[in-house]
Design a protein that fits this description.
This protein is mostly helical and 387 residues long. It has one domain. The protein contains 14 helices and 3 strands. It has helices at 5-25, 27-32, 39-59, 63-85, 114-132, 140-164, 168-185, 189-208, 211-229, 234-240, 249-261, 286-318, 323-347, 365-382; strands at residues 94-97, 100-106, 109-111. Strand 1 (94-97) and strand 2 (100-106) form a beta hairpin. Helix 3 (39-59) packs parallel to helix 14, helix 5 (114-132) packs parallel to helix 7 (168-185) and helix 5 (114-132) packs parallel to helix 14.
């Protein structure tokens, strides 16, 4: 049987779009750090070619023979151990950016283990849920007993990624994927409510334990409070109003860049907000930069392609009779969906900015390789799906 060629071509096209905009949107960073003009383009092009080849290679493999080994033993166990070891590695091996030590230095390349760990973690959940959760109604306490080990495992994940690596955005993505997969695996409504309460409590504790996260929430709220408070009773609005919150200048520039693009955009390479007004525009704010240069219609095409990619992933999940493949494919689809939503909502001030890359589009070799490996695994599974 053949793998899903349409999924492969969509992913490859999105990679190509990301490569093009790595050249266009990285211009300020090139000038700031005195890089060669094609610094980001050459790196993204190289990783993009490797990623496309990796997707094609994985699509040719037999999932029954290779998928469990690759996802659990390499991505889950190996990356988990690597992230545990990172705090004890010398600074010459671990790169710290904005107070977060998430990257391991390699010759000419920095690697973030969490991008491959996510794939292994999702497969581990799919593999384990299939053995532990069968959709049959059980007593409430027995369901709690079944799910408690996952709470412990996810607690460790929160500690490593959210606390040690200071990457709360990835925790939000993984928590959302975990919840979606638990629902798909088949648990009672009481358990779903309990899980939501646990996530709310864990999120509250993570936010309040970090002054940086509290300041980010205040910054986000200061940008939307005037609009929200206008719909609330005056007494409640006065209590919620923050006078001294820092103005979210990044979000302001992001919204201005989107607005400046209009319907048809300024033209590729002709955006102005990337010229020092909007930092990290080729990474975290890539959608704002693309919107300014290709406009509403251009970004609409990209969004349609991205959701076409998600549709093919969820179709692969629904067409397979293997429960592990079903849960894994669904989990990967939700991982892409939540990453895209968190980024796009953040740059438009709907939610606080989380620093989550847009799959395939943001500059960065780790996320591109991780996204491509995930698609390669789905392509592998698609050969075992019903057409």
């Amino acid at each position: 049987m053949k793998s899903d060629k349409f999924l492969f071509f969509i992913a490859s096209f999105l990679i190509a779009v990301g490569i093009i905009f790595s050249l266009s949107l990285g211009v300020f960073s090139v000038l700031l750090y005195d890089y060669d003009n094609t610094h980001f383009f050459i790196r993204q092009l190289s990783i993009g070619i490797i990623s496309i080849f990796l997707m094609w290679t994985l699509s040719k493999l037999n999932p029954e023979k290779i998928l469990t080994f690759v996802c659990i033993y390499i991505f889950f166990l190996a990356m988990f151990c690597l992230m545990l070891a990172m705090p004890f590695m010398p600074s010459s091996l671990v790169r710290e950016v904005n107070g977060a030590a998430r990257w391991i230095k390699l010759p000419g390349f920095s690697f973030a283990p969490v991008e491959l760990f996510k794939i292994g973690f999702i497969y581990f959940l799919a593999w384990s849920f299939t053995r532990k959760i069968d959709g049959v109604k059980k007593p409430f306490l027995k369901e709690i007993g079944i799910l408690f080990p996952y709470v412990v495992v996810f607690g460790i994940v929160i500690l490593i990624i959210g606390s040690i690596q200071n990457d709360f955005g990835q925790v939000v993505v993984l928590a959302s994927v975990l919840f979606a997969m638990i629902v798909l695996a088949g648990v009672s409504r009481k358990i779903i409510g309990l899980i939501l309460s646990f996530f709310a409590l864990a999120g509250f504790l993570l936010i309040t334990s970090s002054q940086h996260r509290i300041s980010r929430i205040h910054s986000w709220w200061s940008g939307i409070q005037d609009v929200v408070i206008s719909f609330l009773p005056s007494e409640m609005g006065n209590k919620l109003y923050i006078d001294d919150a820092q103005t979210p200048y990044q979000i302001s520039h992001s919204l201005n860049a989107i607005n400046n693009g209009g319907f048809f955009g300024e033209g590729i390479g002709l955006g102005t907000f990337k010229l020092g007004f909007l930092s990290e525009v080729h990474t975290d704010f890539v959608l704002a930069g693309i919107s300014e240069e290709v406009g509403f219609f251009g970004i609409l095409i990209i969004v349609i392609l991205f959701y076409a990619l998600l549709l093919r992933i969820f179709q692969t999940a629904s067409n397979t009779s293997n429960q592990v493949y079903y849960l894994f494919s669904s989990g990967i689809g939700f991982m892409f969906l939540f990453s895209f939503m968190i980024n796009s909502y953040g740059i438009t001030s709907i939610t606080p900015v989380k620093g989550i890359a847009v799959p395939f589009l943001s500059y960065g070799g780790s996320q591109l390789l991780g996204s491509s490996v995930a698609i390669g695994c789905i392509l592998m599974i698609s050969k075992r799906s019903k057409n």
